[in-house]
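ZP: hey, is the zinc ion complex queued? I don't see it on the tracker
AM: it wasn't, my bad. submitting now with these inputs:
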Amino acid sequence: MTRFNGEIGKDAVRGKRKTGMPKQDRRICSNGHRYDKSSDCPVCPVCEKEKSKRSVFGKLSAPARRALEHLGIQGVAELSSYNEREILALHGMGPSSIPKLRILLKEAGMHFRNED
Ligand SMILES: [Zn+2]
């Protein structure tokens, strides 16, 4: 009854070592949004939210979306040149994202590249 459920590992990643005082950094992004940079994440939360609404990948979690953006994938056409395994291997991409992507591709009349 005492086995770990995997949450431990997540906390370990989150608890990155912090040096100095936990000061809040007031930032203004390139689009004029003010936000407190209180985490290690350098992106503006307002922009992120708006981007997720605009993006065809808006239904994905933010890390999954960023993983695709990191590869330069901005739409389903680019996505269709990868196979499922390649996408699933991306950092931030979870197994639950794959069915959503599959639907997006299908709606556009496309599909993941076949496994080699
Ligand atoms: Zn912004």
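AM: back. Residues 33-116 form a domain with the DNA polymerase; domain 1 fold (CATH 1.10.150.20).
ZP: great, adding it to the tracker
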